[in-house]
Amino acid sequence: MSDQHDHESLADLYLATVVRAAVQGQWMLAHHAAARLGTVHVLTAWNPGHDRPSRAANDAANEALRQLLESEGCKPIPALGSDPNTDHSEESWCVTGLSDSRAREIGARFGQWAVFRITATEQAVLGCFGDWDRSRVV
User: Fold this and answer.
1) What is the pLDDT of residue 8?
2) Number of other CB atoms surrounding residue 4 within 10 Å
3) C-alpha distances in Å from residue 98, one per residue of 84, 107, 121
4) How far apart are alpha carbons 114 and 129 in whole angstroms?
């Protein structure tokens, strides 16, 4: 199986992720944030690919991601993606103003297999190393 197919096979697992964002300091489900802000993309620099860096390395990478998003004219707000079946979560950034293609490019730059696009009614996972996506109604 190729890496691209490996990434695609993870799409359904990614779709199950519970994504929250801290809008004006109030944590809410990301689709509620999108109802307020418009379509959002949620990106992380944590745990790229198969790597599992230390907390300090993940934090440093996520800070570099925040700075890059700001250089793109975005105003990143804290987000958190959590596996609904375990205690695993990854700190992330929620932004408006990116195209899907740019969000994918940034995700790929940080070694991520996918990023999220979230609206008030849909959560989508967009592949960073292949032109694939999966979505579900929220």
Assistant:
1) 59
2) 14
3) 27, 12, 18
4) 8
**How many structural domains comprise the chain?**
1
Q: Is 125 helix (H, G, I), strand (E, B) or coil?
A: strand
**Range(s) of the domain holding residue 44:** 3-137
Three-state SS letters, the chain: CCHHHHHHHCHHHHHCCEEEEEECCEEEEHHHHHHHHCCEEEECCCCCCCCCCCHHHHHHHHHHHHHHHHHCCCCCEEEEEECCCCCCEEEEEEECCCCHHHHHHHHHHCCCCEEEEECCCEEEEEECCCCCEEEEEC
**The pLDDT value given to residue 1:** 35
Contact 110, 92 (CB under 8 A): no
101-105: long-range contacts, CB 8 A cutoff, minimum separation 24: 102/72, 103/41, 103/43, 104/128
pLDDT in tens, 94-104: 999 999 999 99
pLDDT of the residue at 7: 58
- What pLDDT is attached to residue 6? 61
The pTM of this model reads 0.94
